[in-house]
Amino acid sequence: MPLLSLLVGGALVAGWMDAVVGGGGLVLLPLLLIAFPNAVPAAALGTNKLTAFWGTATAAVLYLRRVEVNRRIVAISVPLAGLCAVGGALAASAVSSDMMRPFVIAAMLAVGAFVALRPQFGATRESFAPVSRTRFIVAVCTLAVIGFYDGVFGPGTGLFLIITLTALLHQSFLQSAAMAKVANTATNVGALAVFASQGHVMWLLGAILAVANIAGSVVGSRLVLGSGTKIVRYALLVIVVVMAAKLSYDQFT
């Protein structure tokens, strides 16, 4: 029971983080690896994806009820991101996480510096600016690449989605967060399908953790929807620092 309580608490916090800006996997995944030291790592990855799916799906529904998004980009890029996540999950065994971490850390620090030095970035009003065909194509392709990354490695997927969508579509953090939840739900489904087909999902545990993840997601979503873009900006900067520190620790220990 103490171990299960720890996992449930981790799922709750992870759901809150994923609903606000992303990064919940940094909380729950290490706990799963610690709780089941004799299990193959893929079992922890698969169970984490099952849990995260329900939280991100809940957040996506809550966001879409209140935030207007570019449905044309969602309709094209979300299924594509899900399919790319399938490819990423299939390729995960051939990609070394030790090789990827330095690039991800550098990307996160660059994102954090950019957001910190551009106070107006992501603070636009909730309206749509015209999107050129070039930007539209680049946005779709970038979401596909992030989907593949989520299947291969994963940390920072939500953060990278929000930054990409904000920069390319000239929209607010809140609009980008709403679209990111939809895209992240699709990538979770794609990766989960691969892990499930390989028998790497602890279904009963995942179902229990999913309930806590949903609860955390509801709390996080309501916080963001009530506070607007400012809370997303602050949370993004905090998550950048925390995730960069955690990945750096994993890299050098």
What does this entry look like structurally?
This protein has 253 residues and is mainly α. It has one domain (2-252). 81% of the residues lie in helices and 0% in strands. The chain has helices at residues 2-20, 25-35, 41-66, 71-91, 97-117, 133-152, 157-169, 173-197, 203-227, 229-252. The chain is globular. The chain starts with a helix and ends with a helix. The model has no long low-confidence stretch (mean pLDDT 85). Its main location: membrane. Belongs to the 4-toluene sulfonate uptake permease (TSUP) (TC 2.A.102) family. Keywords: Cell membrane, Membrane, Transmembrane, Transmembrane helix, Transport. The chain crosses the membrane at residues 73-93, 99-117, 137-169, 231-249. InterPro entries: TM_pro_TauE-like (IPR002781), TSUP (IPR052017).
Distance between the termini: 30 Å
- Specify the biggest β-sheet: none
Q: Stretches where pLDDT falls below 50 for ≥5 residues? A: none
Number of helices: 10
How many domains in all?
Answer: 1
What's the helix and strand layout?
Layout: H1 2-20, H2 25-35, H3 41-66, H4 71-91, H5 97-117, H6 133-152, H7 157-169, H8 173-197, H9 203-227, H10 229-252
Helix pairs in contact: 1-2, 1-3, 1-9, 2-3, 3-8, 3-9, 4-6, 4-8, 5-10, 6-7, 6-8, 7-8, 9-10
Give me some keywords for this one.
single chain; 253 residues; mainly alpha; 10 helices; 81% helix; 0% strand
Task: Describe what is shown at a glance.
The protein is an all-alpha fold and about 250 residues long. It has one domain.
